[in-house]
Amino acid sequence: MPTYCCAISFAEIWAGVRSGEEAITDAFFHARGEVVLDAAVGRHAGTYLSRYSRSHGLQIADALVAAAASTAGLRLWTLNRRHYPMSDLAFHDGQAPT
């Protein structure tokens, strides 16, 4: 199954790369497609923020990641499901967020 990343994922992972891990990190990203953060994703993320920022503490980075996956029709692969309370978001194993 193909996997994808967006600019937010690139930034979050590269922020934690240690010296000597650059090549393997590059290989990780080269093995994936890219979901572009465009105006449609931005509007969708804004809708998520409007709905969930106060009630769930949703931050802009997570809103953009969720909107990128949802807009592209992809399932989100995350270990932090509580960051993603959106009912319309599909996860990699099809389970609802906990």
Number of helices: 4
Radius of gyration: 14 Å
Instruction: Give the overall shape, derived from the CA principal axes.
Output: globular
Give the strand tally: 2
Specify the biggest β-sheet: 2 strands, parallel
Describe this structure in words.
α3 (39-56) crosses α4 (60-72). The mean pLDDT is 92. Helices cover 50% and strands 4% of the residues. The longest helix has 18 residues, at 39-56. The protein is globular and about 40 Å long. The chain has a two-stranded parallel ribbon with strand order 1-2. It has helices at 7-15, 22-30, 39-56, 60-72; strands at residues 4-5, 33-34. It contains four helices and two strands, in the order βααβαα. The protein has one domain (4-83). It is mainly alpha-helical and 98 residues long.
Q: Which terms summarize this structure?
A:
single chain, 98 residues, mainly alpha, two-stranded parallel ribbon, 4 helices, 4% strand, globular
Would you spell out the secondary-structure blueprint of this structure?
Layout: E1 4-5, H1 7-15, H2 22-30, E2 33-34, H3 39-56, H4 60-72
Parallel strand pairs: 1-2
Helix pairs in contact: 3-4
Brief rundown of the structure:
By secondary structure, this protein is mainly α.
